[in-house]
Amino acid sequence: MLLLTRSLGRLATAAVRSPSALPARTMFTEAIPAPPSVNRFGIAKVIAVCALGYAAGATLAHHTTDYLEESEIFVYEDDDD
Known about the structure:
Layout: H1 2-17, H2 42-70
């Protein structure tokens, strides 16, 4: 176990010393970092996920009420007063 710990310690120390392990903005070859990536179709993805979630919830509620009425646990009665 001690040998494994020492070898891992050497690997970690070597990784810290290598320039490729540093973040891109601190590397000597790249003074200005690259521009951030742009998410394509961001609002369309949000709308699609919301619509699918809404539809799945409505379907689950519909099937649940059908089951409850079929089992006579809950029976809808229209009261005309």
